[in-house]
Amino acid sequence: MTEDRRPTLTTVAQRAQVSRQTVSNVLNTPEIVRPETRERVLRVIAELDYRPNVAARQLRTRRSSVLGLCVPPAADGISGQVLDRFLHALTEEAQRGGLRIMLFTAPDDEAEIREYENLRATTGVDGFVLANTHPRDPRTAWLAAHGVPFVSFGRPWDRGASSHPWVDIDGREGTRAATRHLLDAGHRRIAFLGWPEGSGVGDDRLAGFLAALDAAGLGPGGVVERCEDGVPEGEAAARRALVRDDVTALVCVSDSVALGAMTAVREADLADPARIVAISGFDDTPVAAAVGLTSVAQPVEDVAARAVALVRAQIHGDPVDTDRQVLIEPRLVVRATSPARH
Amino acid sequence: MTEDRRPTLTTVAQRAQVSRQTVSNVLNTPEIVRPETRERVLRVIAELDYRPNVAARQLRTRRSSVLGLCVPPAADGISGQVLDRFLHALTEEAQRGGLRIMLFTAPDDEAEIREYENLRATTGVDGFVLANTHPRDPRTAWLAAHGVPFVSFGRPWDRGASSHPWVDIDGREGTRAATRHLLDAGHRRIAFLGWPEGSGVGDDRLAGFLAALDAAGLGPGGVVERCEDGVPEGEAAARRALVRDDVTALVCVSDSVALGAMTAVREADLADPARIVAISGFDDTPVAAAVGLTSVAQPVEDVAARAVALVRAQIHGDPVDTDRQVLIEPRLVVRATSPARH
DNA sequence: GTCGACGACTTGAACGATCTAATCCAGGAC
DNA sequence: GTCCTGGATTAGATCGTTCAAGTCGTCGAC
């Protein structure tokens, strides 16, 4: 029977001897309220443990402070972990800024676009974060055309694509750093284990490898073996690369590939104890840390922070003080698989 | 300048020559509307592409159709992938039932409880899904005490804990199936690589192993080696177990441990080509599929479905037709690491 | 002394839905 | 004919907030 509801603006107003609006002002535009009354109202708010009802606020202001995020239909292997970490960082960052993340799913791009419409119309979602852009992506174009605030983790890979706000990690710089690190460790003949040509991310990472070799005067070109992402695929590719006796280091496009390479290298090392092949991976997944794999860490926290800032700016219509396209430098984490040569 | 807003109930009502309430009825209680008018209203709704505003609905009904989910602060290794898949399944299942998942984070249990309060008071979240229960968890007690609808993925491990709704996977049955499978394959001396005593999940999985041995007349007891979760830890534990020459199979408490064990086994196999040691893992992570590791798959889709049903029942105050505690059978996925002996 | 400007606060309306109670009308029962 | 019943529909109030347009003094300028 104690059906007592939460206090409302009116409850607070009565108790503090002011009007609803003044209480509202204390919360939204405190500077226009006389300090004395402000204090009094704040005291009552604390006393009653008043919290504004966001549904009512949203109804009036047409702002939900909610961002939509589509979770991909199938966890795509080990690299899903990066997305996992990003999800957490994004939630944290959004929360810090008074935003919430709402999840949804869609089987394909068209369905996802329909969900955008739906979420805008019903829930009043303020904006979206895309976490898995791919070449020829119709979603970014739709969002841009409809004036929906959004940002993508991942740059558009089509040339001449519309320039929407995005944040991405500089994969090229990552492999360049990894390659440079191996060069500094004394390696001269380094192979790259990459993905088949055509994936934006993969090509970008390969470019960094080639650039580093070139800068060291070991280019142009280099030993490149390609395979699909995966542990056994990586193992096979590594075997192909290690056929060349002079190869002493492998720069891998992902931790999965690197993991497979480690198996192949272990065998090669057993066969020829004098030959110690160094390896670097990419993504710095927990597995990499566990097995002591040198890897390129993606600072997803930074990505999340910039992403939130970019959508927020669009939502509030703020002038963008920074670039709408942000490329973030990854960080090389050196571990046991890439010791210095003596 | 084309600031035309979305159609509302009133827009539809005018166009269909009925009252607001009738339109509302068509959507919420169609059976009380005369079929003729219902048709007419539905036609107009389709024409105008009307969608109800959930903020307004929530304000009036005090129902948000939103579930809160706390994403854990740190991705805890490889097992985070199960949670990742669960997250997706949950989103899909919730969406299917007209519910949405809203994310939030909290550094510790107390902060999380504060967020429960906050989300209930401000956003009007209808219920919560807990995905990482642990022994002596204050959160479930708080939620139960405050009459907040919720369900946990993971049973309460404290004895005599309050019986709240939960869904979990029967780990005991999982390792039992894995052990039986190895027994059927002809193994007689099987070791278990488990976590240190005291973790509910780990003890449960060990119990299944012992039960299977017992049932086969090979008990009581068995070879058990314990280690923290992790690839190198698993490798070390496997070495300890393989010191006994008669051990021909390893049942592992997790895929991480199994992954480490695979390395140890590969060495042992090289040393003694006649000895082929079988391995099974737990969780059926993508890595397991990649390296051909026999593993116990957690049907997270089923878990998600039951979880959503359980919260939904609480929210609507429906009588619970099924048990409020659900234990789901895992599924053994046989791969290359556990061939039949000949 | 009058006027306007300004600061501090208040009042009614609006956002878009649902709840409650009322209305209208047809069809029987008596 | 009157009354009741029940199905279909409607009108008004309401949820809790913010917006827009006030009111009410006080202060300074002329």
From TrEMBL, chains A, B:
SUPFAM superfamilies: lambda repressor-like DNA-binding domains (SSF47413), Periplasmic binding protein-like I (SSF53822). InterPro entries: HTH_LacI, LacI/GalR-like_sensor, Lambda_DNA-bd_dom_sf, Peripla_BP_I. SMART domains: HTH_LACI. Keywords: DNA-binding, Transcription, Transcription regulation. One of its GO terms (molecular function) is DNA binding. It comes from the Bacteria. The keyword DNA-binding applies. The keyword Membrane does not apply. PANTHER family: HTH-TYPE TRANSCRIPTIONAL REGULATOR GALS, LACI-RELATED TRANSCRIPTIONAL REPRESSOR. This is LacI family DNA-binding transcriptional regulator. It comes from Isoptericola hypogeus.
